[in-house]
Design a protein that fits this description.
The complex is a heterodimer of chains A (388) and B (225). By secondary structure, chain A is of the alpha+beta class. Chain A has helices at residues 7-13, 15-52, 64-67, 71-76, 79-97, 132-141, 162-168, 222-227, 241-295, 300-338, 350-377; strands spanning 57-61, 103-117, 122-130, 145-149, 157-161, 175-176, 179-189, 195-198, 209-215, 237-239. Chain B has 6 helices and 10 strands; from the N terminus they run βββαββαβαααβαβββ. Chain B is globular and about 55 Å long. Classes of the chains: A alpha+beta (388), B alpha/beta (225). The interface between A and B is medium-sized, with 25 and 34 residues.
Chain lengths: 388, 225
Amino acid sequence: MSQKISAFYYIKNNKRRVSVLVTSLAMFSIVTYVSMFLLSATSETFEDILTETSRHIQYIQLDGDDLEYNYSDKQASPEDIYNEAVNKKYDEIRNSLINSKGIEDAFVVQTEYSYVASLVGNYYVEIPMLNKTDMEKVLKHMGAVLDSGRLPEKAGEVVLDSMLIKNYGYKLGDGLSQNNDIKIVGIINCGFYFGCGMADRDNVVFYNPMICVLTDGTVRDLKNTIKKNGVFLENSKFVDLKDGEIKLQDEITSAISSSTNIIFAGIIVIVATLVVIVSISYMRDRSSEWCLYASIGYSRKAVYFSIVRELLFTFVTAFLIAVVVVILLMKILDILLITELGLQCEYFLFDTLNQILCVYIALFGIMQIPVRIEIFKIKTIDAAEDFM
Amino acid sequence: MFSVKNITMIYDIEKENKMYALGGFDLELPDTGLIGFIGPSGSGKSTLMYCLSTLKKPTAGEILYNGKDIINIKNSERENLRRKEFGFVFQRHFLIPYMPAVDNVVIAMDENNTKARERAEGLLKELGLCGRELGKRPSKLSGGQRQRVAIARAMANRPSVLFADEPTAALDHENAFSVMRVLKEYSKKHLVLVITHDISILKDADQIIEMWDGMTGAVKGGKGN
């Protein structure tokens, strides 16, 4: 038997039926991938805040014990004397930090915050407030270029990256989300959710004092890095790359993965149900046809491979359609939603693609079971009952 | 061409009340000619044809085709026989409902190329289908047209033996005789075995074999004898 049973006989003449399976599979891929793409706008944005920014700028929130400042002294001293003592301690620590490997500079800063809302959840970014000279160093370190407005010239003024501006919907002249007294005077572009401003340490009583550390991108664990240089801050809080990675895992990735698992499981159940329904009707419709093929000289193997080719065509078509639609949808969502909201996203989601392909393989495998059963049931045409 | 010895077919062999579809008889069939099998329902005509064409395996006996046993052969040999040596026109036309007439013929051919398609179209035209009818699905064709497509499919590979089980059952007289003319023409160079209840369509048969209760009865010379 040299002729193979062409898969296209059935596909060409049963477009509506084949399209049900193609559409089911394509919809599964599209919904899954686009859902993950939208969730990536959250994970990528928060990853940028928690880890990418932390490769370049990190913070230490000093604990009273590390300051070696006696709490009873604070009660006893006037506030300005306390502040002076604290500032002095900060300066001492800052001076010892700047000699550590991987640390380019460090400043004592007052910290403001701005709010970043993603599609699912929100987070805060630190806005360091420094003196003019230090602020210019920080801006240069972060690769910031002024886009519009001007750089801060007096205490209480900040510049923010355009992504932060877009995300919150700030305009020049607005106050910061967490402190309306801090005015936005300029928009910068640096590729990070970042901003900084001016504070006058001589005239402003610092609150949220922190040490802002500029790193060369190699520092992950700031606490250990400075320990090697003899600076021991055992009780202080470090906002470094390690801290960012932990927060990303604990607060973002695990929370998102719960959502993604629910979405994925729901979609799988729907698709599996559809595939089962389609398979049953497909088998019922075609068993007599396969009996006919056996009667006119086609082997079971030939019949089986014709079915495999039909299924392969269906799966590949569904996948290709899904790829085209997904790319279009992602582009549209990126332009209309993600970029508009100043969020980050990832187009190529390897894990999701892998999961989708695994589901395709699993479904293809599962569909072999009823096919194989029907193939073994093939008799000759005299056994066929309901044939047109 | 066919030499049948003591062919027996028992249905429900494991049950107490066995049903003998073929009761064990001998039969010799020539290389060419139109042979009619006639008899009442349940007489074993279709079972005999299915056994001869390898679609069914008899319970006992021997079927030699061109001197070779075709009961205990490998699947691949059986498939090859069905493909190259035998053609089938079933009681119901058994056309594939979603395929156009011409594809229903091409599917039975050894090749699926332009030449095969042209031959399929030629066969259908010879059988009286033309133009747009070739592209119609079976549901859009009349009973007679469907049966012609089934005959064209059976002839697609120019088989040495053409089995036709009640080929005219669903046809009016005019169509029935038209189909029989085609089969008669084909029988000039090949063997055509026709099962029917209607003796009138066998007026041009070279031989008519009567069957009763799973046994062959009288063998008539045909041509009205």
